Amino acid sequence: MAFDRVSVIGGGAWGTALAQAAAMAGRQVSLVARDAAQVDEINTSRTNRRYLGEQQLHAALTATTEAGEADIIILAVPAQSSRAALGALDPALLAGKPVILSAKGLETGTLDRQSEILADMAPDAIPFVLSGPSFAADVAAGRPTAVTLAGDDADQTSAVAAALAGPSFRPYAADDRIGVEIAGALKNVYALACGAVDGAGLGASARSALIARAYAEMARMVSAMGGSATTLTGLAGLGDLTLTCTSVQSRNYQFGMALGRGQTVEAILASGAKLAEGVATTPVADALARSFKIEAPLVEAVQAVLSGQADIAKVVAGLMSRPLKRED
User: Fold this and answer.
1) In terms of DSSP bridges, do strands 72-75 and 5-9 run parallel, antiparallel, or are they unpaired?
2) N or C terminus: which one in the chain shows less Cβ crowding within 10 Å?
3) What is the 3-state secondary structure (H, E, C) of the chain?
4) Among 53, 112, 50, 102, which Cα is nearest to 77's?
5) pLDDT confidence of residue 9
6) Positions in the chain short of pLDDT 50
7) What local confidence, expressed as pLDDT, does residue 257 receive?
C-alpha cells in the first residue's frame, strides 16, 4: 500500500510540526484545524504564528477545517481531547487505515491509554503509537529528531515509519505499543516532579536521583500493565524521560517548577500557563498503580503535590526517609 497522503488532526504546535515532518518526507499533507483564520494563515502566509512563530511551513502542507481521505492519519490533539476529536470524524475515514496516536497521556475517568480510546471510537482503525524525545519547534525547524513508532505488525510498522522518515525526522519501528504508550504518559508525571525539585531549589543531585528512580518505577508500571521493560532502554523510555525531565522547553517541567515555588495548580493556570499533560495523567497513573498493586511512590508523591496535600520539600523528605533496601 502506498502512503502518499497524510492527514494530521490537530493544528497546534505538535500537529503542525508532525505535518511539517511528513511534508519534508515527501508526503502530501493535509493539516486539519478548527480555526478558519488559522487555516487561512497557513495556506497563504505559510506560518502558524500562534504555535510556531515565524517558522516557514513546507509547500506540500495545506490546511483545512474538514478531514478527508488519507493513507495515514495522525492524531495530534491533547490526550484528554482524543475521544472528542475521534468522535468528530467519520469512522469510515479511519477504517483499515494506520492511525498514529501522538498524544502522551492517560484519559481521565476511563483510565484508558490512547490506543484503547481509538479501539472504542474506531475499532476498524489500525493503531500505531508515536513517542520519543522531541519538541515541536525542533521537528518543525528540521533539527535532527529520532522517535519510536510502535505497532502490532512488524512489516506494516516499518512501512509506515519509512513513509514518515525524512532527512531530519527518523521514526524507529518497534512492536511494544503498550510499553511505548505507558512510558510516554508517565514521563510527563516525572517531568512535573523534576521541575518541582528545581523550582524548590533542591539541587541537581536530587533531580538526578529522581530521574533514576523514576526509570525504575516506570519499568515496574510498564511490566505490570503488559509492556516490556526493555522498551525503556530506547527513545520512548530513557530518551524521552531524560529530555522532558531536564529541559525548560518542556511544558510539564515548567509547570513543575511553578509547583516547586509553592504555586497551586489553579494559580499557575490563572497566570496564563497552559495545562500540562502530566497534570491530568498523574491521578490516572496513581489510580492504575493502585489497581495493579504497583509500588509507585513517585507518582503518589506528584499526586500529593498537585492535590495540595503536601509541598515538594515535604514530599522529597518523605521519599528520603523511606526504608533502605537494595536498589532495583
Assistant:
1) parallel
2) C
3) CCCCEEEEECCCHHHHHHHHHHHHCCCEEEEECCCHHHHHHHHHHCCCHHHHCCCCCCCCEEEECCCCCCCEEEECCCHHHHHHHHHCCCHHHHCCCEEEECCCCCCCCCCCCHHHHHHHHCCCCEEEEEECCCCHHHHHCCCCEEEEEECCCHHHHHHHHHHHCCCCEEEEEECCHHHHHHHHHHHHHHHHHHHHHHHCCCCHHHHHHHHHHHHHHHHHHHHHCCCCHHHHHCHHHHHHHHHHCCCCCCHHHHHHHHHHCCCCHHHHHHCCCCCCHHHHHHHHHHHHHHHCCCCCHHHHHHHHHHCCCCCHHHHHHHHHCCCCCCCC
4) 102
5) 98
6) none
7) 94
- Amino acid in position 175: D
For 244-274, write each residue's pLDDT tens digit. Answer: 999 999 999 999 999 999 899 999 999 988 8
Contacts of 11 (CB under 8 A, 6+ apart): 31, 32, 33, 34, 35, 38, 39, 42, 48, 51, 63
Q: Is 187 a catalytic residue?
A: yes
Burial letters for 232-265: b for 16+ Cβ neighbours within 10 Å, e otherwise? bebbbbbbbbebbbbbeebbbbbbbbbbbbebeb
Place of cell 495493579: 292
Cα-based angle 119, 120, 126 (whole degrees, multiple of 5): 20
Residue in this structure with the C-alpha cell 515535604, named with its chain if needed: 314
- 18 phi/psi in degrees, rounded to 5: -70, -35
Residue listed under C-alpha cell 493513507: 71
Pair 146, 172: CB distance under 8 Å = yes
Domains recognised in the chain with CATH numbers:
5-175 (3.40.50.720), 178-320 (1.10.1040.10)
Burial of 68 (0-12, 13-18, 19+ CB in 10 A): exposed
Picking from 183, 187, 191, 190, the residue whose alpha carbon sits closest to that of residue 226 is 183
pLDDT confidence of residue 239 = 97
